[in-house]
Amino acid sequence: MKENKFVLNTIVIVAAFILIQLFGYKIALLLLNSPDEGNGYKTLFNIKDEIKIESKNASNPKTYLDMEYEELEGFTYGESQSTKLNNSYYLYKDDTQTVLAGYKVGSGYNYYDDIIKSSINDKETNVKLLEKVNVYNNFEVIKYLQKHYKDKVSIFSNTNDVKLHNLMNTYANKKIEEGEIRYLKGDLEGFIIINKTNTIFQVNIKNNDKYYYFDFFNSTDNEYFTLDKVISIISTIKFK
Questions:
Q1: Residue 230's pLDDT is what?
Q2: Which end of the chain is more exposed for a tag (fewer CB within 10 A), N or C?
């Protein structure tokens, strides 16, 4: 009897150890990183009417890489805020350092780059998770989130699926402004995310296999950039 009890206890302990190994880490992921429905949820599914872009010539063209667009009068290049991947420009109040509005123009995938740098996992893991679901740029980030944001994960889900769910949804809730999405049609392919106060306009554009973005913003109590003005600016974009 004692031997049988010992064998039974051993089996129970081993089984418990195996279960802890299988589910313990996953439970920790679910408890620590599982994101709530936040700003991203409200924005991703708030899709408004498409915007038709009709190309026009810039009266004062400015060149960025292989792209040309209307230069904005009165804006100053922000040398310390610019990088190899983007240029920043600011409109100041009179001769002060008070910023009224600004914009950033860049090439590449700023959403994608932010996600792979997320501290939820190491960078190599984040890249592999996105590769698994064929996400390599901003357009694919948005499409993936719109398709899978509402997916549920549990302790029975694959560990990588839990990691990917937490990575993508946490990014959406922390980084995507609450507002709406407007897709572009006509002479430009892309989309604009507009925050609910109409102070931030995030434009993503695709040209063949290259990607570009413009982030326009207004400071508090200033309305330099409006949706109409943003549309007017991006309508002058021409690719060489």
A1: 97
A2: N
